[in-house]
Write a structure and sequence with these properties.
The longest helix has about 35 residues, at about 195-225. The protein is globular. It has helices at about 5-30, 35-40, 55-80, 85-115, 125-140, 155-175, 180-185, 190, 195-225, 230-235, and strands spanning about 45-50, 245. The chain folds into two domains: about 55-125; about 130-240. It is mainly α and about 250 residues long. The chain has a two-stranded parallel sheet with strand order 1-2.
């Protein structure tokens, strides 16, 4: 697989900047007293009924997380030829994990529409969310203390979660194309000029989306830890929140 120095350089720079941004934001949590109130005094934002994560979704979250971690590791091994003697096994593991995440995605979409909770409604983005976005930004920039909780997910959460599954589908398509480029990329020759160039373009897109997931997964993990620790404990350790309140 071809290495892409430009993609790697830009993405690594963004990744390091995001780590720096997380560190600065964490300091902001300490300076403003949010960290003390939550983690030292235990005054976390109450979990509402509509925020509660039922067990099927917790299971699918676990499957997704493990598969993404495995895909990232095996993908890097393939791309940079780490563990070169096991390269064939890495490719097999990579595409097996791709199958797992595809099945999990289909199951999650079906559950969103057919499950008891009808969670597809949680991801719809409308006028309310647009009007809510400035308040969300003010909260994360420490310009306001009250979290603007109007639905299960705030506007920026909805945008990021919707972007996650869209990028996941594109990643799966590009990964499928570069598995058998001579068989699956024949249609693209009039566009790119040759199968080899098409293969490199789709491989570069695949690599860029991998970096996207690395960067945004770190941000997602940090925000989830800071803002939703009781829900995070529910997902990872099956620890029920001390209190579940009705959503106003």
């Amino acid at each position: 697989m071809v290495a892409y120095p430009i993609i790697d350089s830009i993405s690594l720079t963004i990744f390091l900047l995001s780590i720096g941004g997380i560190f600065v934001h964490f300091l902001g949590n300490i300076v403003t007293g949010r960290f003390k109130r939550r983690f030292l005094e235990g005054n976390f934002k109450p979990v509402t009924e509509d925020e509660y994560i039922v067990s099927p979704i917790r299971l699918m979250h676990w499957v997704h997380m493990v598969a993404i971690a495995g895909l990232t590791f095996t993908g890097l091994c393939i791309r940079f030829e780490w563990l070169k003697p096991q390269l064939t096994q890495m490719k097999i593991h990579h595409y097996c994990l791709m199958g797992v995440i595809l099945i999990n995605l289909i199951a999650r979409i079906l559950y969103a529409f057919k499950g008891k909770e009808k969670t597809y409604k949680d991801f719809s983005f409308g006028k309310k969310d647009i009007l809510n976005t400035p308040a969300v930004l003010k909260y994360y920039l420490f310009l306001a203390d009250d979290y603007p909780h109007i639905t299960k997910y705030a506007s920026l959460q909805k945008l990021s979660y919707n972007l996650f599954w869209i990028m996941l589908i594109i990643q799966g398509i590009t990964g499928f194309f570069i598995l058998w480029p001579k068989v699956l990329l024949g249609w693209s020759v009039p566009i790119f000029g040759s199968i080899e160039i098409a293969d490199q373009c789709f491989t570069g897109m695949h690599a860029a989306i991998m970096w996207f997931y690395v960067i945004f997964t770190n941000i997602h993990a940090y925000i989830a830890s800071m803002e939703g620790w009781p829900l995070l404990k529910l997902i990872f350790f099956n620890t029920e929140p001390k209190e579940i309140v009705a959503h106003e």
